[in-house]
Design brief:
Blueprint (H helix, E strand, L loop, with lengths): L3 E5 L4 H13 L2 E6 L10 H4 L7 E4 L2 E4 L1 H11 L11 H27 L5 H12 L3 H10 L1 H20 L12 H16 L3 H5 L3 H13 L3 E4 L2 H10 L21 E6 L8 E8 L3 E8 L3 E8 L3 E5 L3
Parallel strand pairs: 1-2, 2-5, 4-9
Antiparallel strand pairs: 1-3, 3-4, 6-7, 6-10, 7-8, 8-9
Helix pairs in contact: 1-3, 1-8, 4-6, 4-7, 4-8, 5-6, 7-10
The protein binds glutathione.
Length: 312
């Protein structure tokens, strides 16, 4: 066993990205199904307030955000590599496009097209999360703007199709890698959650053939675990993360400092507080104590997250 516990739910597209990553690595992992909307009472003790999906746990180390999760999977299980052909830095840059602009357009398309069919609590939660406080108008605007949004996605899926039309089996060549997981989850979401998705995707033959190859990779070997058991794993383990400093940190962050960490731009309400344990240019990890989870170390990416020193 890899010791990996993934907290996720089947319909979550970002979780599908990580599940494909686990498939590429051929790993065995434990699967905890979490609620689709807050409260998430058995997950919050682990993350300290981060509510997005998925979250990875290994003992008492908790990894938030798919960027941080996939990087840690690569570190612990370097073979087969996520970067065939040596594409490491470039592959993460691709992620800023797929998880940024492209992800928000796909979300707008799916939510806008679903309109009144969305359950009210789900619409409010996701509306607020992705469209901000004026989410109700945002949803109406998206519903009225679907042809434009689809045109934006069409152009970008066209880039993926072009890349694959050149005879590559996967984005980087013969072997699957990180860019496949990064692009696949959005295609999976458009196909499964937008009623017009299958017809839309039929205009991209190379993309569809690749999609079938990525689907065939599967998800590795998941085994169901219940959330209480995962909490017990955290409680009985100690964080494995060693103290680490970074002399060049632009914010002067260092082990021992009290900070809060939240998704940049829109994540104020889900800030996680803790004491820095390790910091480098790509990740920051904080220690926190929780009555149910014990002492845990929670890891975040630097890119896309804001770390704020706690005053005093
Ligand atoms: N940047 C995050 C985004 C995660 C994200 O937005 N996940 C969606 C589900 S696919 C989410 O959290 N939705 C709200 C929820 O599950 O409570 C990542 O890469 O992990």
């Amino acid at each position: 066993m890899s010791g990996i516990i993934l907290h996720h739910y089947p319909q979550s597209p970002v979780s599908e990205k990580v599940r494909v990553g686990l498939g590429i690595k051929g790993l065995a992992w434990a699967s905890v199904e979490i609620p689709r909307i807050p409260p998430k009472p058995l997950l919050m003790p682990l993350t300290g307030g981060y509510r997005r999906t998925p979250v990875m746990q290994i003992g008492a180390d908790i990894y938030c955000d798919s960027q941080c999760i996939l990087r840690e999977i690569e570190r612990r299980h370097p073979e087969p590599t996520f970067y065939p052909g040596g594409a490491a830095g470039m592959a993460w840059g691709v992620g800023r496009w797929t998880d940024g602009e492209l992800f928000s357009q796909v979300i707008k398309l799916v939510l806008g097209a679903a309109g009144d069919a969305l359950p009210a609590d789900f619409a409010e939660d996701r509306g607020r999360l992705y469209l901000g406080p004026d989410w109700a108008e945002g949803l109406e605007r998206a519903a009225a703007d679907l042809p434009h949004i689809a045109a934006q996605i069409r152009g970008q899926f066209g880039w993926i199709d072009q890349r694959l039309a050149e005879g590559r089996r996967f984005m980087l060549g013969e072997a699957p890698g990180l860019p496949d997981a990064l692009a696949y989850y959005l295609v999976w979401f458009v196909r499964g959650r937008w009623p017009e998705g299958p017809g839309f995707l039929a205009q991209f033959p190379a993309l569809e053939a690749w999609e079938a190859r990525v689907r065939a990779i599967g998800h590795g070997r998941p085994t169901a675990m219940d959330a209480e058991a995962a909490l017990a794993v955290a409680r009985t383990a100690q964080p494995e993360t060693q103290e680490a400093a970074d002399a060049h940190d632009p914010q002067g962050l260092a082990p021992g400092m009290e900070v809060t960490i939240a998704p940049d731009l829109d994540g104020g309400e889900e800030a996680v507080a803790g004491t820095i344990r390790a910091v480098n240019r790509e990740t920051v990890a904080v220690l926190r104590e929780d009555p149910r989870a014990g002492r845990v170390c929670v890891h975040f990416p630097r890119v896309g997250y804001r770390v704020t020193a706690t005053p005093g």
